[in-house]
Amino acid sequence: MSRVYPFDDAATARAVIDDAGTVVEWNEGARRLLGHPAGAVVGRPAALLLAGDPPALPTGCRWAGTLGLRHRDGRTLPVWLLAHRRPPHDGHAGDWLVVTPLTGAEPPAADDPLAEAVLVQSPCALAVYDDRLRLRRMNDAMADVVGLPEDRVRGLRLAEIGGRAQSEELEQALLQVLVDGRAQDVQTVTRTGGEDSSHAWLARLAPVRDGDGRVRGVCLTAHDITDNYRARQRLQLVNEASVRIGSTLDVIRTAQELADVCVPALADFVTIDLLDPQEQGGEPPARVTAPVTLRRTAHRSVHPQVPEAVLSPGQAEAYPAGSAQADALTAGHTIVASAAGGDIAEWLTWHTARARRARELGMHASMSVPIQARGLTLGVAVLTRHRRPDGFTADDVLLAEEITARAAVCVDNARRYSRERETALALQRSLLPRTLPRTAALDASSRYLPAARAGVGGDWFDVIPLSGMRVAMVVGDVVGHGVGASATMGRLRTAVRTLADIDLAPDELLTHLDDLVVRLSAESGGEGSPGELGATCLYAVYDPVSRRCTAARAGHPPPVVIRPGGTPQALELPAGPPLGLGGLPFESTEVELPEGTVLALYTDGLVSAVERDPEPSRDLLFAALGAYTGSLDETCDRVLHRLLPPGGSTDDVALLLARTRGLPAAQVATWHVPADPALVARIRKQVGERLDAWGLSEASFTAELVVSELVTNALRYGAHPVRLRLIHDAATLICEVSDTSHTAPHLRRAKIFDEGGRGLLLVAQLTRRWGSRHTPEGKTIWAELPLHEEDSEPGL
Fold it and tell me: Which residue, of 353, 550, 591, 619, has the greatest Cβ tally within 10 A?
C-alpha cells in the first residue's frame, strides 16, 4: 500500500530491472507468482528467472509478450508480461518496469455490480439499439439527457423518443451503421428532455457484434459539446465579421454589413442608428446627452418584410432618456433588457408604435451596444429577439461588443473618407471652370466625373481665350487622389492660365510647367528626399483666322479629331515625358483643322476602366464620337454612357469637346507699314475706311488713335518690317501691330516734361485689354476694343 494507491499492491506482480539486466525491485505480487522472495532475487541477473533465451527488447518504450518463467519449485510458468522503458529521472538511471496482473483473468460473475456499472452507472450518456433500431438498454446518464426513465421508452425508435427532425437524421445514421458495420460520428444541435435551450451534441455510433462477428445492434454515446460548439460559433462569427464588414468605404454599406452579420446569428432584428456629424459641429462627440437625434442607417430582420421596423433607412428621430438608444449612449456601455425583468416595457413606454410592434411579435430580449471608435461616439446598434426563445447571455454581450467594435472602426474610416472625399470634391469643383467661355474660335462642352471607388483625383480641363481671337484648350491629370491632388491641380491650372496669358507656345508652356512640378515635388518631400509628384497635360492653341491648331502633350493621351464628313482618328502628337521628370524636351505639332472639326480631349480615366483594356476602350470612344450628330452635350453624355461601367470609373474622368469655327477672310485686314513715320496718317485713313466698310464707324475714332500709337511705337522702337492687322467679330475689334524686334514694351507713367511715354498708357485706357506676344519672327502688340455699349468700359 501507499498514499497514492491505498489498496492491496500484491494484485500485480511487479519488478524493476536496470539497464545492466539486474533486478533492483521485487514486490509481494512477484513473490506470489513465482515463489521467490525479494532477498533471493534483488541484485541478481533477471535472466536467471527465464526458462529460455531472453527476448530482444524493442527500441521503443514498451514491450509486451508471453515468456516462460522459473518458479521456485522448478516449474516453468508461461506468463504474459508488460514492460515499460523508464528514462532517467530524479537522479536515477533508466530502467525497465515489468508487470503482470494476478487477478482479472476470469470474467466477472453475472451478479457482479461492476459488470452493470459499465452501462448503467457510466457518466457518459449511452444507449444500445437492437437490429430493428429499437431501444434495448439505456444508462442513467442517457435517461437524464432524454428526460424519461428507461422502462418507459424501452422498445421505441430514436425518432419516436426525440420527436424532432434532428432525431430522424440521427436515426438515419444509426441505420447506416447497422447496414455497413462502420462506426461514425454525428454532430447535431437540438433541445432534449425538458430543456429550454438547445445543446450541441457529438453522437458516436458504433456497431454491436456477437461472438460470430455479426452486427446485432448499434451503441450510441452522446457527449455534450455545447461550450466548444458555441466557442467555435463565436470565433466563426467574429471571423465572418472581419471579412464582411468594411468591404467598402461607404458608411451606409458598412452599417448594413454590421446588421447583416448579426442576423440571425445573434438576433432576430437589428437596427443601426448613427449620429449626424453635421448636427454635432462636423465631428462626432465623445459623450452624448439625452435627448439624442439619430438617423436610421440600416436594419435587418429574419423576416424579409422587416415588420419590426418603425423607421425607414434615412429617417431621423430624437430618442429621449429612457429609450434603448439614449440609455446606452449616455451610459457609454452595453445595456441588456428582458421582458421578464420589465426593462423592455420601460424602454417602450415613450413610443406607442414600437410598443405595439413589440407585443405583436413577442419581443422579449433587447441589447443596446454603443458604436464607438477612437474615443468618439458614432451611434448605437440595438439587437432584439422574438423568434429565438432564449435571452442574451454574457457571452452574447461580449460577442456583440467585439463585432460592433470592429464595425465601429470601419464606420469611422468610412466617415472620415466620406468627409475627405466631399472636401476634396468641393475643392476640385471650385477649382474647375463653372462654365466655359464663349469665344469666336470654337464651341465647347465638358464633363467631369469623380472616381466612384477612390478618392477624388486631380483631373482638370480649361478653355482660355487668347489674343487675336485664338483660344487655348488644356486637359491635365495629377497623379494621386485626395485633397492634395486637388490642391496641386489648382496650382497647375493657375500656372497654365498665367503662362497662357503671356502667349507661350505649347511646347514652351509645358517646359515651364514641368519646372513648376519639379519644384512642387521637391517642396512636398521630406528632409533630404524629394516628394513623388507628377502629372500629365495636353495643351492646344487654335487660331480661327488661319484655322490651324498647335498642340503638345506631356505623357497625356492624344486628342481625337473628327473632321467634317470624316471618321474619328487620334491626332498624331509626340508623346512627351510626363510632368515632373525635368530636363526633357517637349515638341509641338501644327495641323490644319477645317471649320466644324470636333476635337475630343480627355483624361485616361475615360479609357482605363478596370473592366476593360485601354485599346478596346479607345475603339468604343471612336465609335461614340463617330455617332456625333451636331450636339456637343449629347455627344459628351453618349461617350460617358458607353465607356464607363454602371458603378462609375475607378479614376477621375475629364472630357472636353470643342467644335472649331473659322473667321471669314472678310473680317481680317492686313497692312504692311512703310518705314516712314510720316505715312502713319495714311494708315489711319485706311483703317477708318475699312471700319466704315465693316459697318463699325462708331469705333473709328478710338481704333484710329490706338492704331496710330501702336504703329508709331513699332516704327520708333521696333525693327522692320512692320505689319498691321485688324480682326473683328460681332463683339470685339482687335488691333495687332507686329515687328521683328524681340524687345517687349512695358507700361510706364510719363513725367510732366517728358516728350514720350504716354502712348501705351493711352492705349490701356482706351481698350478693354492689351498685351504682347512673342512670335518666331519677333513680337506682336495687340489691343481689344469692345463693339457694344455694355462692353465699352476701358480698363487696364
Answer: 550
Measure Cα distances from 604 to 451, 458, 725, 738 in Å: 12, 12, 40, 40
Q: What is the DSSP string of 37-90?
A: -HHHHTTSBGGGGBSSPPPPPPSSSEEEEEEEEE-TTS-EEEEEEEEEEE--BT
DSSP H helices in 212-315: 226-244, 251-262
Half-sphere exposure of 17 toward its Cβ, with a 13 Å CA cutoff? 19
Asked if 762 and 702 touch (Cβ cutoff 8 Å), the reply is no
For residue 735, the cross-strand partners are 726, 783
The answer for residues whose C-beta is within 8 angstroms of residue 117's C-beta and 6 or more apart is none
Q: Rounded CA gap, 581 and 577, in Å?
A: 7
CA-CA distance, 538 to 660, in Å (whole number)?
Answer: 17
For the purposes of burial, counting CB atoms within 10 Å of the CB of 304, is it exposed (0-12), middle (13-18) or buried (19 or more)?
A: exposed
For every residue of 549-608, DSSP letters joined together read EEEEEESPPPPEEE-TT---EE------PPBTS-S-----EEEE--TT-EEEEE-GGGT-
Cβ pair 464, 474 in contact under 8 A: yes
DSSP 514-553: HHHHHHHHHHHSBTTB-----EEEEEEEEETTTTEEEEEE
How do residues 93-130 score in pLDDT, each as one tens digit?
Answer: 888 888 888 865 455 555 555 445 556 677 889 999 98
* Residue whose cell numbers read 512695358: 746
Other CB atoms within a 10 A radius of the CB of residue 326 amount to: 23
Residues 6+ apart with CB under 8 A from 102: 10, 11, 12, 13, 29, 32, 33
Nearest to 711 by CA among 755, 766, 672, 761: 672
Pairing outcome for strands 722-728 and 732-739? antiparallel
37-48: pLDDT as tens digits: 999 999 999 999
Minimal CA–CA distance to 383: which of 407, 353, 418, 415? 407
C-alpha 171/C-alpha 158 separation (Å) is: 6
The whole-angstrom separation of Cα 598 and Cα 568 is 9
Cell of 220: 450510441
pTM of the model: 0.61
What kind and span of H or E run contains 446? strand 442-449
Position 589 pLDDT exceeds 90: yes
Helix (H, G, I), strand (E, B) or coil at 739: strand
515, 560, 554: which is closest to 538 by C-alpha? 554
DSSP reduced 3-state for 367: strand
